[in-house]
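Data card: per-record layout.
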Amino acid sequence: MAEAHQAVAFQFTITPEGIDLQLSYQALNQIYLSGVRSWKKRVSRVRNSLIKGVYPASPSSWLFVAIGILATMYMQSDPSMGLITKIQQHLPLSTQGQTMVSALVFSTLLWLSLILALRFCLKLLLSYHQWMFEKHGRISNTTKVWVPLVRLLSSRKPLLYSYQSSLPHLPVPAIQDTVSRYLESVRPLLTDLEFKRMTDLANEFESNLGNRLQRYLKLKALWATNYVSDWWEEYVYLRSRGPIMVNSNYYGMDFLYVTPTSVQAARAGNTITALLLYRRKSRVPGTVIPLCAAQCERMFNTTRTPGVETDVLQHWLDSEFVAVYHRGRYFRLWVYRAGRLLSPREIEYQIQRILDDPSPALPGEEKLGALTAGDRIPWAQMRKQYFSSGVNKRSLDAIERAAFFVTLDDEEQGMRGDDPEGNLDSYAKSLLHGKCYDRWFDKSFSVVIYKNGKSGLNAEHSWADAPTVAHLWEYTLATDAFQLGYTEDGHCKGEVEPSLPQPQRLVWNIPVQAQVSSSLAVAQALADDVDCHVFPFREFGKGRIKKCRISPDAFIQISLQLAYYRDRSGFCLTYEASMTRLFREGRTETVRSCSNESCAFIKALESGETEEECRRLFQLASEKHQNLYRMAMTGAGIDRHLFCLYVVSKYLGVESPFLKEVLSEPWRLSTSQTPVQQMNLFDLKNHPDFISLGGGFGPVADDGYGVSYIIVGEDMVNFHVSSKYSCSQTVSNVSVSWIVAVCCLLQYSSVHRIGLLNGTVSICQLTF
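The structure for this 768-residue chain is written out next.
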């Protein structure tokens, strides 16, 4: 009964002397402190909303405008040209009061007008993208004027969402431009006869149905903030009825060489603390060009909930707890107490309590997470039938409303032991799918802490793209290792409050074990088919490549084209993701890396053309790739426009043979670069071992490859290659085609003088 008495704030009994009232001051104090924290957060939200709402001006600038207007009126001058007098006529006040109030009203209207004017000017400036196409050292006069103007209008330190209303809208490309660029992109993939047929389909579409669809799309662009993003989120992600595990979710890895501590609970304590500190950040790091921050809104407290026809993203404003999974059991772990964030040491203490808890999993509880890994329709049906009320709903709410999900894995992972290469592959597969039931794949992201202290995450894709999650993970790793730190014995720093309540064990009543087993079977078959290979390439990095006056990204993309050609004796449609966050609510666009120029270089190389000719073609291929990337970033891409035209055609109930064929083409080579965005957090000169492995994803096509790479520092590139075992033509780690590929690219980079022509340079094992 002692616990029950502690659980209430007050109790009373009726006695002959009257009512005997007993208060629990400790409980009331906790309630008071929690309420104070809640109100502080509300005030902070209102304050931040005001600051970002008037950006690029400041709230205090209203006072200067008001003082200026009152000063001019005191000098017997009317800056409003009669407007103040008209306002006075409608105010039922004394003469002095009318003068003061009307001046303040006019000052407010003038202030708001100035804000709108400044915001409009900033939007016009941010709509200028020609600077991206200018060569290094050859800056135009327009750009020279543009840079200081942008800096002037954005000189005030912005909050995270300050630029949102000043960002331009994504433009709708002209349909003839998109069709022309599409035909150019598929030319090297088709025979003459196939290309003629596709050209006829494209011309017919452009001259007939295309213009009609384009009009609807332009109407949407006038009305909506972004003409792509909502349809992209819904039809590409949320309406997919297959498993999101492997097919959609992606992963991020820990440091390659370093594990800050081998104590699992301590690593979890610092990692959880770092993530929650990131959630409290209200400002963005300094950047020359502002990017859309809309994807950050749903980073925490977000869950993808299943539906029969389409899933829904649910987001809550705040959450003071995280959901934790360990040995088949689920816990709710409160990370705030009395209005303060628990210290890393206190979170470690709570995590250790979970690790030491000997209680077994309830029947059906251990593999419950498999429902999120299998097909979406069965999960939606089970959720509606068995998780919409009672104890199951309360426990499911605790997971879905949590800030994020944490898995305390009982395995050890990382580059270790006698087979470090094979262990890295196992590490990648573990983060991508785990045991298919020990991650909650619906959460915005799930953090995995392994038994030996290694960490990683698995992220759901619909709410945001990889660069947003990478920014979060970079901050987390750096804060964990360099700011929070550990004691000499590997534990978190800080003190522990002894009265912390036990982590709350979630309780389930699960009569759906047959469906759990069915979903697990689907997910397990998918996971077993994935072949992952992770390879840290240490021979050289962007430092040497840039000395060749070649874009590192173009260099790697052409390497991939050459590797694929030597592996399959042909070219394929290649997907490289680029961002469109220069525009409001921008997501991604496709860079079609397989170009006429890259194919011409590879054919010349394979046919034995002269070294000088190959160098020339390689330079052209690199410049073409850079131009394609810039066009994609500035709204002149191909695929999102064609995708939206296709969606409009479906709404209108009309068929387009051209669009149908375009949208059905397989991406056999799907690639993505993980950008390093916060190099200031990592001192690789003094701490060279703190190198990030980046992350990866599953193959997009059954007979294709998924390739992710991260360019770390000046001397290293980490690659993640995935394919499917079920396809006999794809193996992530067998041939030696990339060894020769990179050697040849170095040879034809026209920089013999810096000694890059070295036959021993290789990307061994990073092969198709």
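Known properties of this structure: The longest helix spans residues 95-126. The chain has four domains: 2-53, 61-154, 245-528, 533-634+666-754.

See the next section for split statistics.
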